[in-house]
Amino acid sequence: MIEPFIDNLITLGTPQNIDLPVINRNKVGNYCNISSESDIVQILGASYRQLYSIVDASYNFGRATRDALWAEQEGDFLAWSYYTSLASYYLNRYWAWIDTTRYDPMATNGYFSSASHSDLHSKPYWEAAAGFCGLR
């Protein structure tokens, strides 16, 4: 029996859910993942663990920022420095978790900056993605 093989797999705005199995690269030739910085739908399709981590980092970023502003207002610059660093840490964690919903380490990844989820499935974006993924 012949094993099925996919020559070109292009995903457009597909959530990268870390709880699902990875693509079997032995059965896929050219795997290209396209996403957009403006696609909230892609983020919402991620795993509960990813969504929880995004919300948690966002919440802790807000708390640390509030505490840094309070410390600055009180003139406690040592505390301000600590909370500012903590806010930076949580902001970086937030973006790192956001990226887990968009980036697939097994694929060639392409990004648009301002396309909505439905834009990714329109002809101009498909043509740009196809060119990026080497289909032309």
What would your notes on this structure say?
The protein is an alpha/beta fold and 136 residues long. Helix content is 49%, strand content 15%. The protein is built from 4 helices and 3 strands. A 3-stranded parallel beta sheet has the order 1-2-3, with helices on one face. Helix 2 (48-74) runs antiparallel to helix 3 (77-100). The longest helix has 27 residues, at 48-74. It starts with 5 loop residues before the first strand and ends with a helix.
Name the descriptors:
single chain; about 140 residues; alpha/beta; three-stranded parallel beta sheet; 4 helices
Helical content stands at: 40-55%
Major sheet strand order: 1-2-3
Beta strand count: 3
Nearest-integer average pLDDT: 94
Biggest β-sheet, characterized? 3 strands, parallel
How do the strands and helices of this protein lay out in sequence?
Elements: E1 6-12, E2 28-36, H1 40-44, H2 48-74, H3 77-100, E3 108-112, H4 123-132
Parallel strand pairs: 1-2, 2-3
Give a brief outline of the structure.
The chain is of the alpha/beta class and 136 residues long.
